[in-house]
Amino acid sequence: MAIERTFSMIKPDATRRNLTGAITQMLEDAGLRVIASRRVWMSRREAEGFYAVHKERPFFGELVEFMSSAPTIVQVLEGENAIAKNREVMGATNPANAAEGTIRKVHALSIGENSVHGSDAPETAAQEIKYWFSDTEIVG
Ligand code: DGT
What we know:
Strand content: 15-25%
Largest sheet: 4 strands, antiparallel
CATH architecture: 2-Layer Sandwich
Shape: globular
Enzyme class: transferase
Number of domains: 1
Radius of gyration: 14 Å
Family: Belongs to the NDK family.
Keywords: ATP-binding, Cytoplasm, Endonuclease, Hydrolase, Kinase, Magnesium, Metal-binding, Nuclease, Nucleotide metabolism, Nucleotide-binding, Phosphoprotein, Transferase
Structural class: alpha+beta
Protein name: Nucleoside diphosphate kinase
CATH topology: Alpha-Beta Plaits
Bound molecules: 2'-deoxyguanosine-5'-triphosphate
Distance between the termini: 18 Å
Subunit structure: Homotetramer.
């Protein structure tokens, strides 16, 4: 399997509870390397742009409100099979369904306040990385 890159975000519910280090440690323990990282307090407009694919969903307003309610940590992760590996360590969207030992099982509060985001495919990973980072900020 080739080395892949994926986009990860530590969400406001987690930064509020001072879990940036604990969550990053879980990513690193899974074999993922943090090759870019920045703390951002996104505007509503940035949140709407980032989550544009969900704009018709009933929870879109709530999602944008939440994502712009406190700082997030945006990251690029690199490793073998990084996209799938990150999704695995994140666990299911709803923490009630997440497997033992996953980030969402351990830390998430609800389906909305679910501590982390991770790209779900190579195309979205490339788009999401580009949304938040310039090439010079990524140091592999
Ligand atoms: P991600 O990685 O944040 O894109 O989440 P996924 O791919 O695990 O889940 P997805 O794409 O179905 O939903 C994107 C985000 O939208 C999810 O992380 C939290 C939020 N969300 C999804 N379903 C609900 C819901 O029923 N209520 C609320 N408030 N938020 C939701």
